[in-house]
Each structure stands twice: as C-alpha cells, then as structure tokens.
Structures
1.
Amino acid sequence: MSFISFDHSQLVNLNYSLEKELISTNHAGGYASTTIINCNTRKYHGLLVIPQPRLGNDHLHVMLSSVDETIIYDGLEFNMGIHKYPGLYDPRGHKYITGFEADPRPVWNYAVGDIHYTKEIILKTQDDRVMIKYRIQQCEGKAVMRIKPFLAFRDYHSLSIANIYANKKYEACKNGAAFCLYEGYDNLFLQSSKKATYVHAPDWYYHIQYLREKERGYDFEEDLLVPGYFDLEIKQGDEFVFTAGTNEISPTTLKKSFDAEAKTRVKRSTFKNCLVHAAKQFIYVDEEGKTSVKAGLHWFGQWSRDTFIALPGLLLTQNDEDTFFRVIDDYLPDMYKGLFPNLGRGEFASYNSVDASLWYIWALQQYVTRYGKGNAIWKKYKKSILEVLENYRFGTLNNTAMHDNGLVWAGVPGKALTWMDAIVDGNAVTPRIGYCVEINALWYNAVCFMLELARQSKDSDVIMQWENLPGLIQETFLKDFWNGHNLADIVTDNGTDFTVRSNQIIAASLPYSMLGESEIFSVVDVVKNELLTPRGLRTLTPKNQAYKGTYEGDQLQRDQAYHQGTVWVWQLEHFVTAYLKLFGEKGLDFVKDIYQAFEPCVLDYGISTISEIYDGDPPHTARGAISQAWSVAALLSIDDAINNISKRIRMKK
C-alpha cells in the first residue's frame, strides 16, 4: 500500500474526504487542485489554474474547473462527478471510487459494475497544461466514456456568474475543441490521445457551492459553463490521455508526454519525501523569467519575507545552490532604499516590510554556515548587504532607523511592518510600532555577520565603520528587553510589553545572539512551557486575556486570531535551533519527537504537505493555506539538524 492512500470507506465519508485537498504546481506559476474525491470546495480549486498576463494583473485564473466522467454501458449512465449544490451533492460519483493514492502522482481507482478503470492527473512542468490519463483495466464488451468539462475563465479570487457575454462558440482542433469564453484570455484546447467525438451543447450549471469559502465568510456560489462533451469508445486495455492546455498539441504525443512527466516526480513514499516533494511545489519562473517562491498555496504570491525565511530549508537542505542564488539574484533589482518589497515585484511591489531585508542577510548566512565560501559571498553581495545595513542605520521608509542607542525603531500608524501583519479597520491587531524583539535580534545578527565576512576578506574600511556597533546594540537590548525571565516583545515610547509571545525565540536562535546561555535557557523554557504545541509555536500565551485558541469564522474573526494564539510552524525551526544550542546531542530525542509528530499532517488537510497555521487549542486543527513554504522549510531544516547530529554521534562510535 502506498504511503499516501485512502480506501473506499474513507472516500465515501464526505465529512472525512472533503477535508483533504490536493495541489500540484508547475514551474510556470500555475497549479491543479481539488479534493481527494474530485469535489471542489474552494473557489481556488481547479484542474488548470494559470497566469493570464494579457489581462494586466499578476493573479492566477481558473480556466478548467473540473471534468465529469460518465460511463455509458448497457443502456445505463453512471456519472463519476460530484458537485455541491444547495442542499445536496449531485451527482455522487465518489461512491464509485474504490481507492486513491498519491505516490508519486494522484491516482483514483473506479469500479462501475464490470468496468474498472484508473484516473491519473499530472500538470506539465514547463507548460500550462493538465493531463489526465485513463486506463481501462476491466470492461466486458464495449462502453463509452463521456467527458464533460466545466469551464470558469475567471480570476481565482472571484466567482463566475452565468451571463450573456460568455463566448459559447468553439473551434475544432486535432481530436478536440478549443474555447475562449472572454476577450483577453488564452484559448483553452481540450484534446484526447484517443479518437473522441465532440458534441457541442453549451449549458450553464448554476449554484455550485464551495464549502470552505462559506466557512471563511466569502461568497461561495458560482455558475460554470459546460460547452459540450467528448464521447470516447472504450474497451479493456485502453489507455488514453485527455488534456487541457493553452496551445494545441499533437494527440499522438500525449501519452509519451504524460509518461515523461511521471518519471520526473519525487516519490512520496515517506514523510521526508513528502516534504521534499512539497518544497519543489513553491518554486516557479514568472513570465519575466525571474525565479520566485510562492509563499503559500493556494492564494499567496511572492512575499520576500517568506521567501528569505524559507529559502535555506527549501533549497539548501537539498543542496540546490543554483536555485537558491537564482531566487536571490532575481530579487536584488527590486531592492529600494535597503528594503525588499514585502509583496509583489516591479510595478506591483509594496515596500511595507521591516524584516525582509534582514532575513535576506540571514539566508546568505545560512549558506555560509553550510558551505563556507564567505569570501565569495562578500565579493558578490557586499554592495547589497551594506545597502541594507546603511539604510537601517541612517534611516529608510516607514520611519525605520537605528536610534542613538543602537536599536532599530520602525513603524507608522495604519501599517503592520513585521510578520504579525493582520490589519482590521485600518488598525494593526498586534500594534508593533517601536523596537521589536525579533527585528533587533536580526539587526544585531546581520551586523555581526557582515563584520565576519569583512574580517575574512580583510575589508578594513568596513570593519572600522561598524566594529563598535554590536557592543552598543547588545548593551541596550539587554537593558531594555530582558526582565530576568523572558524577553519583551516590543519596547515603545509608552512602555515595555513583556507579554509572552513567540518572537523572542528568534533572539535565542540566531547564530549571533545577544543572549548568554542562561538567558537562552530561560527563553527556551518559557516558550516550551507556554507556547510550544505539537504543531508549532503559539503566537501568544494562553494565559493572556487576548488569546484566541481557534482560527475560524469570517475575515474579521480570523484576522483577530491570526497572531493572537494561532500556531505557526515556521518559528518551530528557531525553537529547535535554540534548544539544540543548549542541549546538543542530549536534545536529539526531544527534537526527533517534534519532527515525527508532523507525519500524520501529510495525510490531512493538504495531502503530502504542511499547512500555514494550526489552532492554538487542541486538537490543533490545520487552518489557512493548505501548503505553506516556510512551514515545509522549517521541517526540512529540523530534519537536516537531526541528521547532522546523528551523523556526529555515529562518527564518535
């Protein structure tokens, strides 16, 4: 049995199966996504969701929402599809699924009387094309498979409504038909490797509902256009591919193309392999040829903070130095006054992140820690490193600047510049205008790392200008942030907030820490006792009255809980790093337990990946995006740390 597999009894239980989602991305920025029973529960679900740059935005667009297969045999019709309508599911084709597995690609097994067949889905790596392969394993006599496509042609943040403007016409193509519902969109070519008869019978399917959108307080009903259907005669032993893409393809190449793609997939036969597979899903090349990281799937785009935090775990743990530097080098032209855009790039860039540039330096530091080559890094990135640090030192956007005490102050009303960035009615849910604990920890670490590189390269001018600063930063930081028990989260003009939050762990984990061993021990102890869960760190101690233990409801309710107790996986990497600083080999079993506790997660919510967040309260239900880059990266980094310590132990024996 495959590591990722579900049987008939699980699949027919809608309360169980509709909670489990699949997503597969390509290197062009698109994806295919649905649930393990092919019933879409989000507006973000679709079999072909791709960029449409001619429309003038950087959003993805749902082209092909789904396909329904109908088996016509002995005068009877059996519909394999499933959709949610008001008050019912229709049809209920999931009852014909005998099993599902995803190693290395999604495969469904169907049984309809004497007809048994499999269905596999692959998204082409370098092209906006989804391919669905059918194998007819058993079929007495002849039958017909009818394939009915549900078209959307809309922004994935929006919903489609039946209208008179949709172009219902089609153009014949090789063994298929092409459609373009609205001006500005690419044509969508639907083709089969096996001879198919297309019957044009356009019809709207009304009030298809998406349960996850309803839960999240958004509009959740849409109308989809079915332009017609494709009939294919089938018999035992048949194997054919049905495809949807933005260019016409020779039908004779489809099976070969599918098999070639299948060979490139990472087997998901273990928990670790699932993480490696998930890590590859976030990397893509945009229409300008820039290599980027999707912060999360489905709806997160390019976030520089998330990118730099995730890069070492996603790529360096796999020794993919080339992609690591391509991402970094493609980001550098977007730097402005020492800052990277928090969201977007080029004309879509938004410079409202105070920490992204410091995480950029940390990412380079992780590379040097792993591979050395400090002189080469300094030679190539000296200019950008100094541009960051000089702007932080002398002042840049959003009132960000080092004060005379050595600490970096940042913040303006109405903006949330740190990773705790939820805004409600124009106000930050967690106001952090002032000296933030992780910002100043990153600032100190960045200055010290820069000096390390400068000393290795004997860059005396830089050393002279910066060498006295770390001592000042550390002295002020300990005086203002340390209370003998834990670190303050923020210091402002109005006082110091010693609320127990997870940000302090970063001050304990960074390679250059302002804390001594006793302070690190105390911080780790506080975080372990009040914030650590089996799914990551709570953002706020449950002892605080503002704590919210569940992340659910509409946008307002969720934003109010986002950083007020919600559990995040990414900070777990920093907890483990700090913990291993203290306990080394003696802490290995504890860290192994933390890592292995996530194994069930790849069989839940986002299949073979790790979600964005979890509830602060047990049972710590998965929430948010089904696959998050820095969540996956954190676990790969923890696994890497475990392997390094285990290797040292073996070498001693």
2.
Amino acid sequence: MRRIEKFLDLAGYIWLPVFVAAGLKCALLLTGRMPFNSDEAIVALMARHINQGILPIFFYGQAYLGSMDAILVALGFRIFGQYVWVIRVVQSILFLGTVATTALLGFKLFRSKSIALISGLLIAVPPVNIALYTTISLGGYGEMLLIGNLLLLSGLSIIQKVKRERFIPDRSFNIGLIAWGLGAGFGFWVIGLSLVYTIPVVFVLFREIIKTEKLKTILKSAALILSGAILGSMPWWTFAIGEGSAALISELTGGAIANINRSSELLQPLERFGNMILFGGTVILGLRPPWDVRWLMMPILPFILIFWLAVLYFSIKKIGTDKIQSEISIVSLIGVVLLVGFILTPYGNDPSGRYFTPLIVPMALFGAYFLVSQFSDNKFLQIGILFLVLSFNLGGTIQSVLDYPPGMTTQFDAITQIDHRKMDELIDFLESKEIYLGYSNYWVSYPLAFLSREEIIFVPRLPYHEDFRYTARDDRYPPYRNLVLEAEQVAYITTNHATLNSYLRLQFKDRSITWREKIIGDYFVFYDLSKTIHPQDIGLGLTTTP
C-alpha cells in the first residue's frame, strides 16, 4: 500500500512532462512539414510486407537495424490503415515512453521529485535534432531511446541490490540478470547503438560484484547475463548462421560509411573529433538543425551555450570529486562510450544527428541536477533558466518547421532535399500514361512505391550526386529489381539533376531512341521510350562514374 502511495505521489511529476510532450507531438504532426523520405518509406514497405506474411530480420539493405520498428508500424497499419501519419504516431508513442522513463530515472538516481520533473520537461521539449528523430522513423532510433532507459532502470535496480550490506545472490537476483541480458540482447538486435547503454551498466555492475570478492558470483553473473543476451539477440545469430557473420559485423562497425573519409588512418580519429565538436556538438545542443548550417534562435543561443557548458563543467567536477554515486556515473559513461565509439569507428565519418540521440537523456538528467542543486535557494531563477532552455528548444523546432521546404528533414545534402508535395500528382500522371515500371534514384523510388501501394515500381539505379557516384546499397529490395528487369517498357525519373538529364538525352539520341518528357515539381520524367534500355546499358547504376 505504501509503495502505491509513493508511486501516486510521484506520478504527477512524470505525467506532466508526458502530457507536454504529447501536445507538442500532436502539433508537430499536424503541421505536415516533415517530408516523407526514402528511409522512412522502407520502414513503411517492410510493415506492409510483414502484414502480408513476410517477416524480415533486418531493415532492407542494412543489417545493423533490426525489423522491430517495422513490426510496430505493421501493428499500427492493422489498426489504423496504411498511412504515413501512422508511422509517426508509433514513433511519438515510443517517445512518450522515453519521456516518462527519463523522469523516472531522474527520481531513481537523485531521489528528487524536482529533478524528475525538470529532466522530464527537458526531454519533453527537446532540441530540434531529437524532435526530428523521435517523430520520423529511420528504423530503430526511437525504440533505442526507450529500450536504453529501461536497461538503465532495470540495471540500476540490480546494482543497488548488489550494494546492499548483506548481499547474497538469490533466485530473484539470478532471474533479474537473465532478464536484463535478454533486454540487452534484444536492444542489440534492434540497433547496435544500444551498446552505449549496455556497456556502462555492465561496467558498473561488475565493478560492484567484484567488490564482493566471490569468484563464483562473478562468473555466474557473467554467464547469466551472457546467456540472456544471446537469447535476446537470437534474430541476429539466426541471420549470422544462415547468411554469414562477415556482412553483419561490417555493417555493425560502420563499414558502409568507412569510405566517406579517405584520410590516413592516423588522421581519421582527429578529423572525427573535429566533426564531433563542430558538427555534432552544435546539433546536440540544438544550436542548428542537423540538415543545415544556420543558427537557430540567435538572440538566445549564446545563453543556451553558456548553460550547457556550465552543466558539463558541473557534471565533470561532481564525478571527479567522487561525491557522486556509482549509479549516477552510469549516465556519464553513456556519453563517454558514445563519443569514444564515434571517434574510433567509421561512424565518425558521418556526423549526422541521429548518432547523438542517446545523449539527450544524460543532458536532461544532468541539466536537471544542475538546476536543482545550484539554484535550490532561488526558485525564481531556477524556473527562469528552465523556461529559457525550453523556449529555445521549442523556438528552434518552430523555426525549422516554418522553413519549408525542406521543413524538418532527414536529408543533409541539398540535392536530396526533394519537395515531395507533388508526389500525388506524379502518381496520377504515371497512372494516366500506364507507366508502372522504370528507374529513378533512392530518394524517389521507395516513397513512390509505398504511396502508390506498390503499383508503381521504380528501381533506384540512377545516381543523385552531381559527380554520378552510385552505390548498389541504394537498391534495397531484389523483387523490385527483378520485376523491372523483365519489363517491356520502362521510364526514368530524375530529380534536381540537370547534368544527368543531359546525359540521358545524349545516350538516348546515340541509340536512336525517341522519348517524351514531363516536369512535375522536382520530378523530371522520361517516358514513351521507343526502345527499352536499362541504366547499366548506358553506364549508369554502376559503382563507377560513367
């Protein structure tokens, strides 16, 4: 009864941030200023295929993202229908769970209702980077944030049990270790980035278990966690046994983007550190949107930068003086593991905001800890600073929404920022001309396939970079490729690429092929070709430039 009363007393401090987050998500979804891009379209297509009885283990073409996100979206499709807004509602619900568990972490770590409330609010009204990646689906980042928080909460309970004065491993403790291992393994399958939560918990847990000086307890605990992790990540192992582990390990360690940085191996860590500070740091704090190099909320920006630098200094100082509990140090280790991984792996070659999303929880927790501990005697100033930070975050999101196109987008290269508002018109045109098969680029093919209910299939075999670079990874779904290869008539759709349009015209003329053209917004359609010709026949869709 007493536990129920305590929970009800705490519930208000948790639900307030959740209600705030829910209201902001609803407003954001209603703006319609978030383009439906190809990565999200692949999640949607996977969800449709799951409902048709096909269950992929991994995200199409990326064997480091499990299919859990698509499974959840498939459930949403079954309930509400196959609409883009359903994908984003699923992500928003996951985010509400992240907000609630962050507030709960604040209370569990610091035993302060004020910290619970403030940390919940700091994540409920997040920087634009988090607002983006917790609304649009990229295959598992929303799930990672929630799973990570659950791993922290459950891991803290296990650690606190070990720290008790008369700790004796019992059945409930052993079951807890297996269950935590299951969750860690499951999170690893969902997305490998979840290791930034797993490693700190395991490190602190075994640091405490080792203090018991019982070798049997240490070995048994390790075996139980490992057994649970293997079971939890069974989809990963199933794929590895059937398809081979080399590709999985390459994907997990960032092999797909390893060639982005062609500097010497000695210089790469230094360049990645620079990327982290210049590009990552400004995105983490919400000083700029991840897709553009422009400052947000300029009048307030300097004060926000000072605030977060003060939080960082305060946190390092607290940890350095050993006056902070070992459980709280887990939160700081999340940042350490993530940043070390960013510098030492190829992921540091691509400083996009999604890789920094796990930092929002340590930021919210330590930001709240700083406000409560430093301004406990001046509530007016405490509330004022909190209001300033929340206003900055909200203002940055509003600025990004109003700047449309591109709006809030996951596309960083201007050439890939396609205005998809004419997609329905494109579909109507293609259907009126009975054009159902052809070739396009990655950023058109999959949104077109999903929104046309897979009646119009254009395989991504055309380059979208100005220098005609192309990677076969763009062609994610072999059944589409086989369908188009067997077609008697194909069309071509390009976007924002005058040079490619000229190249296509030249190649068609050289082969005495006649055709027609149609411009619909950002889409340029070549159709009614007098002869079927495939991109590989004219030097396109290859890994080398034509």
